[in-house]
Amino acid sequence: MINLRNYMTLILLMIGINVFSQNNFPYKQNPSSYKKYFKDKYGITISFPDRFKDLGKYRVNWKVRKDPEKHTGFLCGILFLSKDKNCMIAFPADFFGFFDLPIENRNTEHNEFFFDRTGQIIAEIGTSLGVYEEFKPPIINIKHFDLYQYASFIFGKLAKEKYNADSYSVSSLPDAHKTYFVDESLEKLREEKYPYCTSLFIQKDERAVLDIKLFFTKKGFKKKEKYINMLDKHIWFDEKFKPN
Amino acid sequence: MKKEKLFKKLNVTAIVTAMLLTIVMIFTTACETETQTETNYADAEYLELDIYNKYKMGEKEFATINRAIQRLEINKEGGLYKIEETSASELNISQKLFDYITAGFNYTNSILSPKSSSNKSKITRLKFGNYEDTYQQIDSTYCFSHALSAFQDYSFNTCKTYQDSQGWQDGVPITYSNGNYNVSNAISFVQNFYPNAEQVSPSNIQSGMMGGSILILKTEGAGGGAHAVNGINYDENTGIVYFIDYQNDRWGEVTLNDIITVIKKD
Known about the structure:
The complex is a heterodimer of chains A (244) and B (266). Chain A is of the alpha+beta class.
């Protein structure tokens, strides 16, 4: 049985370059345009919490380690800072969509209790620990650490209540102080104040996975659940969405 | 610290294993021919290595390893390599060299068959209903077929079947010699599905989104290792290329120097 996981659609990748110019993303650099794009494309309603303000930073590369040999990274789409300044949130440049698949690939058993981004979570934790073997299947790398020491996977009711999703994952990087923003001013800010990083992956089966990074001060990290919970119902997978 | 040492050790082993694997791929035909025509190496030159440190090995050592491997009868069963010979004496090579080569293949098999890993129990605790299927896919080393199927027009199995039919085995269908990569097979592979596909030099990548492109990345430093992923975005200001790796279910970032070549589907 073919597994959808390996045929997931990277919508961004497939967007024709004829539609958007080479240098532009499919949305403008403002929260409204960002939200509209994901509403239209993935049926996800995003409302940024009131307690967060737009940092005015878009499309910023972030890496788990600054070391060029460590490739694991993430492209931030838009960043926010909590008003108490204890938490910085990076939303992704794009999600990973599961629709628009070739018919042949739709015959899957992508049904329940399957978390799609496990490979990325393992790569992030492994890279942070310095044990990740680049480009080797994650199964090799996980020998070196206990995934569940760092990551939690939640399926079912709670995911539905929070995001109308099927599952989500929360994982904190073990050596988050070594992460790296390519943007100079942002990196300076992170280096000085935000030595903690937690990944929040939210999955709607056969729809998309949303990857959010939260950066914390020491004080903020002690109350990380509070900040994560601030996103409850601010990210909502529309129930009756049909892709164009 | 122990973890780091273990990782370094594994990394070196992986490099040596990759070399052995490459040699096997290159000499498979020759190997079969020799084993068919010559089964007694009593009169052949006794083969031994003076050094076994990969970092100190030179052309002479690799040539000796090549010759030793050509004396082996190596079959692939269930996707794993099996060496038929059980002793060094029947090959007229040193026991240490025999052990060195077989250890490399055993390590390769452990990569190709991670299900046998003692760590499996840690994974199954995830209680994912279909994680066994995921294993099947993660086991795959057909990164190029993964990258090609990411264009959505052809399934992974279709791409993999074509790759097998061309005798390219798994991985990235390119060759490496004297510091140069020959990517003609990789281009031909993509052109079979997308006739207008073309190669783009990394230096000619335009800033912005990279829809419909396969990146062939260098791996393991020198030695010709490669890995195929899909390009997403290139930022000329930072020099960073953002990619998704479908084989390993992750995304990451590289610089142009890490890229051997780019193939655009059209």
